[in-house]
Amino acid sequence: MSATAPSQSAKANLRTVALAKRDALPAVERKAAAEAIATRPFPLRIEPGVIVSGFFPIKTEINPMPLMRRLADAGAQLALPVIAGRGKPLTMRAWSFGAPLKAGQWGIREPTPDAPEVAPDILIVPLAVFDRAGNRIGYGAGYYDMTIRSLRAKKPVTAVGIAFSVQEMPQVPATERDERLDLVLTEREVIDLRDK
């Protein structure tokens, strides 16, 4: 048995528990949570032209679109991820509200191939589970860990998790391949992890 097997099993268990809690939230509460995050002051300064990547939510994920619209109104250039292939970092492509989208892997909406590739300054990151040490669990493919690592090798990048407060766990197991979050936004609070 490999050294990471217990960690992977623990992660899978935490993911199952957190997603069940997320799935149990009524749609009206999920919508109100997304609006609460969007209307609260954003914890990072948005200079005109700063590139912020977000994502289109799937299943019962919190919807970052209200926040992204607010950041675009503040002058941010938006981007969305495109899956480049298993084992590869995500490609971030420029996008704005009203620009064309196509269905990508798992039916996730993503920019068309002619949209320019960009290197975001801020990544709004989906997650299944998070803790107050900045650790997160995604869906198991490692796309965001690879992407954050790749971008951080090139420039300073702030990784901002976005989730419902019920997705928080006391401790999330982490390996050397896992990239830490700098902030987590929930409907209840802004959790600043940069000094952890």
Question: What do these coordinates show?
Answer:
The mean pLDDT is 93. The longest helix has 20 residues, at 5-24. The chain is of the alpha/beta class and 196 residues long. It is globular. It has helices at 5-24, 27-39, 65-73, 143-152, and strands at 51-53, 77-82, 91-95, 101-103, 109-111, 122-125, 129-130, 136-137, 158-162, 183-185, 190-192.
Concise synopsis of the structure shown:
The protein has 4 helices and 11 strands; from the N terminus they run H-H-E-H-E-E-E-E-E-E-E-H-E-E-E. The chain is of the alpha/beta class and 196 residues long.
Keywords for this entry:
globular; 7-stranded mixed beta sheet; 196 residues; 27% helix; alpha/beta; two-stranded antiparallel ribbon; 20% strand
State the helix count. Answer: 4
Topology order in helix (H) and strand (E) letters? HHEHEEEEEEEHEEE
Largest sheet strand order:
3-2-1-6-9-10-11
Total beta strands: 11
Derived structural class? alpha/beta
Low-pLDDT segments:
none
Global Rg = 16 Å
Strand content: 15-25%
Residues in helices, as a percent range: 25-40%
Distance between termini?
31 Å
